[in-house]
Amino acid sequence: MPTWISRGAPLAALVALSACAHGYSTAPTPAPLNTLTAAEQAAGWKLLFDGRSTAGWRGYKLDSMPSGWQVVNGELTRVAPAGDIVTRDQYANFELQVDWKISVGGNSGIFYRGSEEEDAIYWSAPEMQVLDDAKHPDGKSRLTAAGSDYGLYPSPAGVVKPAGEWNHVRIVVNGDHVEHWLNGVKVVEYELGSADWTARVAASKFAPHPHYGRNTIGYIGLQDHGDQVAFRNIKIRVLP
Questions:
Q1: What digits encode the pLDDT tens for the residues 62-71?
Q2: Which DSSP letter does residue 180 get?
Q3: Residues 51 and 132 in one domain
Q4: Which of 25, 127, 143, 212 has its C-alpha lying 20 to 30 A from 3's C-alpha?
Q5: How far is the C-alpha of 235 from the C-alpha of 94, rounded, in Å?
Q6: Are residues 67 and 179 in the same domain?
Q7: SS3 of residue 227 by DSSP
Q8: What is the mean pLDDT of residues 67-92?
Q9: Could you report the per-residue pLDDT of 115-126, keeping only the tens digit for each?
Q10: How far apart (Å, rounded) are the C-alpha atoms in residues 236 and 172?
Q11: Rounded to the nearest 5°, which phi and psi values hold at 60?
């Protein structure tokens, strides 16, 4: 036994050292991308993207999926001008998880409880901003930076990963309560319809739009803002 290993060392540590000495790792194998574990299935999670097709999605105000969104290497990717896309199903109360990766200087977003009364989904749906904070002008304001509730509630700096790296999102929408989580950090929390929210909307570009943030059920949407962006591991759990 090497002198730097205590005789009281835990068995797991000794096993790991032995494994390293023999050239293999004991680290747990990560779950395959775009799949659900048995525990997730038991907890009621559902995949919104299987890594192989765009089934379950369509263009905003369209019946079909725009060709500018493609599955590339198991990622739902905006590769050419296409417009925003939405889920075919609508959701009221839910927990959503998504991984995203943005190009340098890129901009996109994740919408929730969207509807189709107007020409753009962002006039009805709140948006969690997807952004390269370092290179896009929106990164200069925390109100429009990555993780923010776009234009209304700011996110803290230093949480988003750089362009080209994967970020993990968790969005909770339960009644009027909303949470944005980015890379394991809760970056935004607010109450739809509260006095604070109402005042912020009234002072924003969303003020003239009566459906903004008012839907109790709606579509999940992904934004085409003119830049390449990729999404994977998109899963949702409906809440009571």
A1: 999 999 999 9
A2: E
A3: yes
A4: 25
A5: 10
A6: yes
A7: coil
A8: 98
A9: 999 999 999 999
A10: 10
A11: -60, 125
Do 207 and 155 have their domain in common?
yes
Residues 3 and 55 in one domain: no
Per-position b or e across 93-125, b if 16+ CB within 10 A of its CB:
bbbbbbbbbbbeebbbbbbbbbbeeeebbbbbb
Q: How many domains is the chain partitioned into structurally?
A: 2
Q: What is the largest CA-CA distance in the chain?
A: 73
Q: Are residues 24 and 69 in the same domain?
A: no
Q: Which residues, 6+ apart, have CB-to-CB distance to 131 below 8 Å?
A: 102, 106, 107, 108, 138, 139, 144, 145, 146, 160
- C-alpha count within 13 angstroms, C-beta hemisphere, residue 89: 13
pLDDT digit string, tens, across residues 164-197: 999 999 999 999 999 999 999 999 999 999 999 9
CATH of the domain at 138: 2.60.120.560
Which amino acid, residue 217? I
Q: Give the chain's radius of gyration (CA, Å).
A: 21
Average pLDDT over residues 49-56: 97
For CA atoms 119, 125, 126, 130, the dihedral sign is negative
* 53, 68: one domain: yes
Facing residues of 91 across strands?
218
* DSSP 8-state symbol, 140: G
The Cβ-side half-sphere exposure at 214, using a 13 Å CA radius, reads: 12
State which residues form the domain around 62.
32-238
Instruction: Looking at the structure, tell me whether residues 154 and 98 fall in a common domain.
Output: yes
Residues 14 and 103 in one domain: no
